[in-house]
Inverse folding.
């Protein structure tokens, strides 16, 4: 596994909160989301009747930022461009479920719970001191 991929996986494994962008009427919408990863694939959850799902019905692509720790200039992070696939599958809901989701959902069986699977198309490793952005094409 290449050094860039190792560094990206480290960030994905250590960072769970990031920013996800969608498009609504040719204008961007961003929001903080909690992410889970399986290798380079990201998962996040949302309710079925949200602005996100409306946006994704029109345009299934997203841009995600993860990893910035707020320590200052030079913090390493990733930019992920990907396509979102909505999943209502029981096994995937159980895979991403954790108690932190209880304020919004009753459990993985909650009929309003929708998993968004983000299939990356490109991941950029950003702000590695002394180096330009490094791109992992997928």
């Amino acid at each position: 596994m290449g050094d860039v991929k190792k560094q990206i996986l480290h960030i994905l494994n250590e960072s769970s909160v990031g920013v996800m962008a969608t498009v609504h009427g040719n204008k961007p919408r961003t929001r903080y989301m909690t992410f889970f990863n399986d290798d380079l694939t990201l998962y996040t959850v949302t309710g079925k009747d949200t602005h996100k799902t409306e946006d994704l019905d029109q345009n299934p692509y997203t841009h995600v930022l993860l990893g910035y720790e707020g320590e200052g200039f030079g913090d390493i992070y990733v930019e992920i461009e990907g396509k979102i696939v909505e999943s209502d599958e029981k096994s995937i809901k159980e895979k991403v479920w954790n108690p932190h989701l209880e304020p919004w959902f009753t459990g993985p069986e909650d009929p309003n719970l929708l998993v968004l699977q983000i299939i990356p198309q490109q991941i950029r490793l950003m702000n590695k001191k002394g180096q330009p952005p490094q791109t992992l094409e997928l």
The beta strands are 17-24, 27-34, 36-38, 41-47, 61-66, 77-87, 113-126, 134-137. The mean pLDDT is 91. The two ends are 14 Å apart (CA to CA).
